[in-house]
């Protein structure tokens, strides 16, 4: 039954095509070119990466002294332009420092005293006084900054932004008893 | 006809040797018909040229640092001869360019100018469109007024929701934790060096591909067979005169607009105060409207999918390639009209329903927002579009091309309506309102 040569039987006869020098070199050039492209992209990206000294606008160690604890009555919200945060004194006396940047797209959210809400002017997100989302589209609660109370002075570490999904009582700082 | 030159008087004539080099000697007479192109591609080229000239002038007056930017523009407008006019021309050409490029793309699509051998040029054209948008956006920040600052804040804020690379990309673009001097530096470099160079290079490629394809599509009516031997006329003067007329009309239009309406200039940027409402520039208002209804990641996903779909349009294996027939066929016209009508009803209805009646996160409590405001409405929208595709296919016995065209029309009209909603129908706190 070996009368007709099937194409399959033909194959072993064909010598494997050796890679010609020209072909090999062109592969080599392409590979080198691609490597150069990757290097170039990596270089451009790291050139543009914002880690140059002096370019950091929120210095990592910066701490803002907000003022005496007694100047923030329970149930009030005070805005600080410098550091871009709100100092919130809850009804029970606890203190919370909220970032004033909306978590949706970064607009500055004003505190609306009449409605007791933070209302974002850009996409109508609303947050309560603890920073929790009342209405979307904001995907998570307002960021917070660590607060410390020393000698009755409230200090806010504006360099250490903390992202959170929602309000947790553990985030509230209470003045030391006595 | 180009006059046969006297060999003894061979001089360098820039008109015949350089300008005509872009053109074939002779062009099919029918492609000169104004209702084929509406002169849109030519207008876009004229506007880009205006941008280059006015942009160079502005560059001599502008100080690209936050402390100087705003003041340098005030000085330009008050102290420079025609300073205000130059800025107005730059502003109006930029905005018109977006409109003209969009219309040009629609014209090409609806006359079948994206079938082989013009598939690659569709990609090049869309890339140019993306570059025009990028140029507009980066230019928007430069005046450093409240409008510029906050529109850019929300546009750059959107980057954060791109999966995987989003926040890194945002860091690079913004150059810091918020819009600041690094951002201005980046945008200035992109706006005045990177993007213009890319645009000019791609434009040359775009024109060359037009020539390679044998010129424009030849217009014909639905039943008509393509003409193998169309009547030809010399490009000079027949085509050139028409192009010159369109160019002059476009320049005159821009001038009139620039004389009548000043480029907007708000109060200087104040990072502590977002104006109410804060809106993205109008060409991104569609995305902002999507953001009002969808979880941010999904709004971006939808916008990206639409863009990808537009790039992929020529490669959908159509059975027919009716280049030159408006809306592909008689049936194509019917289905396109029906789709436009459907979108005109569906888009406002969806906006109003989502605003006042339907609250997905309340209907399915306990689920994360990504599901209730992301997956659910996205799936619903996809179902509507898929339903439309099948409906057109069955009910109108449409071919694949006609059905794809119907979906395209539906999405395009929907997008325009979303843009209009965001620009005109949203007021304080981005609440829906009547514009008048």
What does it look like?
The complex is a heterodimer of chains A (178) and B (436). Chain A is of the alpha+beta class and 178 residues long. Chain A has a domain at 58-171: 3-layer Sandwich (Rieske Iron-sulfur Protein). Chain A is 18% helix and 22% strand. Chain A has two helices and eleven strands, in the order H-H-E-E-E-E-E-E-E-E-E-E-E. The longest helix of chain A has 28 residues, at 21-48. The radius of gyration of chain A is 31 Å and the shape is elongated. The model of chain A is unreliable at 1-10 and 53-58 (pLDDT under 50). With 436 residues, chain B is mainly α. Chain B contains 16 helices and two strands. In chain B, helix 11 packs across helix 12 and helix 12 packs parallel to helix 15 (369-395). The chains are: A alpha+beta (178), B mainly alpha (436). The A-B interface holds A 45, 48-50, 55-58, 81, 84, 100-101, 104-110, 119-124, 136-137, 139, 161 and B 150, 153-154, 156-158, 171-172, 174-178, 180, 182, 186, 271-278, 288, 291-292, 294-296, 361, 369-370, 373, 428-431.
What are the defining features of this structure?
heterodimer; A: 178 residues; alpha+beta; 11 strands; disordered N terminus; B: 436 residues; mainly alpha; 65% helix; 1% strand
Beta-strand percent range of chain B: under 5%
Q: Helicity of chain A, in percent?
A: 10-25%
- What is the overall silhouette of chain B? globular
CATH class of the domain at 58-171 in chain A: Mainly Beta
Total beta strands of chain B:
2
What proportion strand of chain A? 15-25%
Shape of chain A: elongated
Corresponding CATH superfamily of the domain at 58-171 in chain A: Rieske [2Fe-2S] iron-sulphur domain
Radius of gyration of chain B: 24 Å
**SS class of chain B:** mainly alpha
Biggest interface, and residues per chain? A-B, 29 and 38 residues
Largest sheet of chain A: 4 strands, antiparallel
* Uncertain parts of chain A: 1-10, 53-58
Following the backbone from N to C, one meets helices and strands of chain A in this order, namely HHEEEEEEEEEEE
Largest beta sheet: strand ordering of chain B:
1-2
